[in-house]
Amino acid sequence: SGSLQDLLVNTLAATQDDAPPLDAVASALAAAGVLLQERGDFARRRQAIISANVELRERELIKLAALAEALAETLRNRGVPAAVASLTAEAGIAVFRVAFETWVVDPTGRDLPRLITESLDQLKAVTAGN
Amino acid sequence: SGSLQDLLVNTLAATQDDAPPLDAVASALAAAGVLLQERGDFARRRQAIISANVELRERELIKLAALAEALAETLRNRGVPAAVASLTAEAGIAVFRVAFETWVVDPTGRDLPRLITESLDQLKAVTAGN
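YS: structure for the whole thing
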């Protein structure tokens, strides 16, 4: 997933500097969602292998943490304070994971970019106390 | 951190059923914050050892993921839909981590429960687009 990380970081770095941090992260996640959606079957087979193996699941967690740290660093480079950058990046990865986990088990369901948007809206509702 | 997980899960399970999920998670985090604040020096020494070692950092990530899953399961048992439960739990763990990382490097700074509240408020501001 090196290419996924590059895509996320480069998309994030390219968003307008005055975009709110979470919107900027959401743009990057949407780009990743389009890529994975195109790779559909491959992404699903890969995930089935990972899910069946404890060590691979742990590797995946570590990769996602590295992805969050890369996003946080990109936000800090845009002038976002460190704590806000970390929270935004981790929230973004959580949004992505929940959407991905829904998508990966339901090939006939909604597209991944759509699920990412829905997941983001759910997080916003949760933090607004709804 | 078995006892920390028990404390979090039991506090979460004991909050009022009609509390919004993130508020319920925040109560549990506050309880964990009080415990760790009491253990102050021990918690800081433990973290210094973990931070200096790649494998221990990875173990810690896996523990935090297990903690998030335990919180999500507790929320599901309270009737919270699966996706919302996962998002709330992961957001809560992100809030906790950011607060903990600030606290652990600054013994003379604010108390951990206070930092957790501030971190939660930052997340709310981030997701509200501020």
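YS: worth flagging: Helices of chain B lie at 2-14, 21-38, 40-51, 54-77, 82-104, 112-127.
IM: good catch. Also Chain B touches chain A through 31 residues (CB under 8 Å).
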